[in-house]
């Protein structure tokens, strides 16, 4: 397994696209491809997809990889969108479309997971998690539920398909299981909760480490994909832990900021992080832990503001950062509710304090600041600093109470240098952009390499991708005041949007 032509394939099964990447023994990317697809919304609030779209996307993506690279692949690892679920028969054939994390049909059932300040859930529970979705299925699609043998996470269904339905491929990993709202933070299935909800215990596959071998590539799948038959299939992990692994997060306290449609701040830990409302604490792909703040309104809020102001992205950046920020205008970006740190699905947003003299650039600048402030609120929660009390830290050039002083930076929503500088100033953290465009697929490929015995997990830290320092935080007392006002405004207006009984 040490020949110079050894390759590893990582498959990242995302919400809107499937990505594949082949890496070599130095974890340099040799080839990559991506195929997009769209979700189905048969009813308002539903989010589903025919799993055959995933399979077709995988076939098409592999066709774009050079045959000369595919022939040397020795193992496959998997990264998958988290929270969704695929109900299958005993052979792994889907009985209905997959239900995905944006789905909100189970919102009215969340009372089955009571949560309060005195008795918080181990992790925040959202309607698009596997637990609420499966609970909904038992109530509304009983015939399908009774016929089902397995309730698989998306990447686990794909692995079963690649194995040809082999028994050893029906497993789950802790990093995905702990995010279902049906397991303890360490990933172990919560049997008492599953029984209380009336869910069949047979649905839940046994757990295996993310880097464990669990089956091999069957001959038919190998033929279709142009890969060697019999190569090892790794269990795999959720996309967030795979991206953290692929981005080189290995040490205790390493932190990663990703900005896309939403935003995530992940901090690795060698021990179980403490429970904090509004934050997630999950198992990592390497067997450790990570804490995460998940903010829903980053790129989606900026895209909405840009559209309302009728400017393209080049104009948005240029006009926003060509003007000084308003000291009276604020933008709350919570256009689709918020997860971290508020756990407030009813939250809404917009501009407050606008004046007749405010130009398009001033409004767009406020939108960038509002998104940065929302990310800061999530980071403050991870730091253990109350957002309102921590607002003054910006004026001190950082966060004196916080250990998170450096954030690795990834995601297509953070490429403009002026935007990066604003993020550094607001977050009070140094930003180091990583050179890894396909981090989740890279992390999946790494798991494949461990599964086939090419590496040990503790050897992977030597392959961290290169990073470049792109921004240092600067002290700005006026920015600190605007952040304090942002937190105060959210607290004042949140009751406006509470559901009317």
Give an overview of the whole structure.
There is one protein chain. The protein is an alpha/beta fold. It folds into two domains: 7-235, Nucleotidyltransferase, domain 5 (2-Layer Sandwich), CATH 3.30.420; 299-399 and 475-497, ATPase, nucleotide binding domain (Nucleotidyltransferase, domain 5, 2-Layer Sandwich). The protein contains 16 helices and 20 strands. It has helices at residues 51-63, 67-70, 130-140, 142-147, 154-163, 174-177, 191-196, 219-225, 239-246, 299-308, 313-320, 360-383, 387-390, 417-427, 439-451, 477-493; strands spanning 7-13, 17-23, 29-36, 48-49, 73-80, 86-88, 98-99, 150-152, 213-216, 232-234, 237-238, 255-259, 263-269, 280-283, 289-295, 330-332, 350-352, 406-410, 430-434, 467-471. The strands form five sheets. Strands 1, 2, 3, 5, 9, 10 and 11 form a seven-stranded mixed β-sheet that branches. Helix 14 (417-427) links the parallel strand 18 (406-410) and strand 19 (430-434). Residues 388-393 and 395-402 have low confidence and may be disordered.
Radius of gyration, in angstroms, nearest whole number: 23 Å
| Biggest sheet character | 7 strands, mixed
| Alpha-beta content class | alpha/beta
Give me the CATH architecture of the largest domain, please: 2-Layer Sandwich
Count of β-strands: 20
CATH topology of the largest domain: Nucleotidyltransferase, domain 5
Number of domains: 2
What do we call the CATH homologous superfamily of the largest domain?
ATPase, nucleotide binding domain
Reading off the top of the CATH hierarchy, the class of the largest domain is best stated as: Alpha Beta
Helix segment count?
A: 16
> Mean pLDDT, nearest integer?
91
Q: Can you tell me the residue ranges where pLDDT is under 50 for at least 5 consecutive residues?
A: 388-393, 395-402
Distance between the termini: 64 Å
User: What is the percentage of strand-forming residues?
Assistant: 15-25%
Shape: globular
């Amino acid at each position: 397994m040490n020949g110079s032509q050894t390759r590893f394939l990582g498959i990242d099964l995302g919400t809107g696209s499937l990505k594949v990447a082949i890496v070599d023994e130095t974890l340099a990317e040799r080839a990559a491809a991506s195929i997009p697809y769209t979700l189905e919304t048969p009813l308002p609030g539903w989010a589903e997809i025919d799993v055959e779209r995933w399979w077709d996307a995988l076939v098409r993506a592999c066709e774009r990889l050079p045959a000369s690279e595919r022939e040397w692949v020795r193992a496959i690892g998997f990264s998958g969108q988290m929270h969704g679920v695929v109900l299958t028969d005993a052979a792994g054939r889907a009985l209905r479309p997959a239900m995905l994390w944006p789905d909100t049909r189970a919102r009215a059932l969340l009372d089955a997971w009571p949560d309060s300040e005195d008795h918080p859930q181990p992790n925040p529970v959202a309607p698009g998690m596997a637990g609420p979705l499966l609970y909904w299925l038992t109530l509304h699609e009983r015939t399908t539920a009774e016929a089902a043998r397995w309730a698989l996470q998306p990447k686990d269904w794909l692995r079963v398909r690649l194995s040809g339905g082999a028994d050893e491929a029906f497993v789950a990993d802790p990093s995905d299981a702990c995010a279902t709202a049906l397991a303890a933070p360490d990933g172990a299935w919560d049997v008492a909760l599953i029984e209380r909800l009336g869910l069949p215990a047979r649905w839940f596959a046994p757990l295996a480490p993310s880097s464990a071998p669990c089956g091999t590539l069957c001959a038919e799948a190998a033929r279709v994909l142009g890969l060697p038959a019999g190569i090892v299939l790794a269990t795999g992990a959720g996309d967030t832990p795979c991206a953290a692994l692929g981005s080189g997060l290995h040490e205790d306290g390493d932190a990663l900021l990703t900005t896309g449609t939403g935003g995530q701040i992940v901090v690795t830990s060698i021990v179980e992080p403490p429970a904090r409302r509004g934050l997630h604490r999950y198992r990592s792909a390497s067997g450790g832990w990570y804490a995460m703040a998940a903010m829903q309104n980053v790129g989606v809020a900026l895209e909405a503001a840009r559209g309302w102001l009728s400017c393209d992205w080049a104009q948005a950046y240029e006009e926003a950062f060509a003007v000084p920020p308003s000291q009276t205008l604020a933008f709350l970006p919570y256009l689709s509710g918020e997860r971290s740190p508020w756990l407030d699905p009813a939250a809404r947003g917009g501009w407050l304090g606008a004046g007749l003299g405010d130009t398009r650039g001033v409004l767009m600048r406020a939108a960038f600041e509002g998104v940065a402030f929302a990310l800061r609120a999530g980071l403050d929660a991870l730091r253990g600093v109350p957002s309102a009390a921590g607002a003054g830290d910006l004026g001190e050039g950082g966060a004196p109470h916080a250990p998170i002083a450096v954030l690795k930076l990834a995601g297509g929503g953070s490429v403009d240098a002026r935007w990066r500088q604003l993020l550094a100033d607001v977050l009070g953290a140094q930003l180091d952009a990583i050179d890894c465009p396909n981090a989740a697929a890279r992390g999946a490929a790494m798991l494949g390499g461990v599964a086939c015995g090419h590496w040990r997990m503790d050897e992977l830290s030597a392959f961290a991708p290169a990073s470049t320092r792109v921004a240092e935080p600067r002290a700005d007392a006026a920015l600190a005041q605007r952040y304090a006002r942002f937190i105060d405004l959210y607290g004042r207006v949140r009751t406006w949007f509470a559901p009317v009984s």
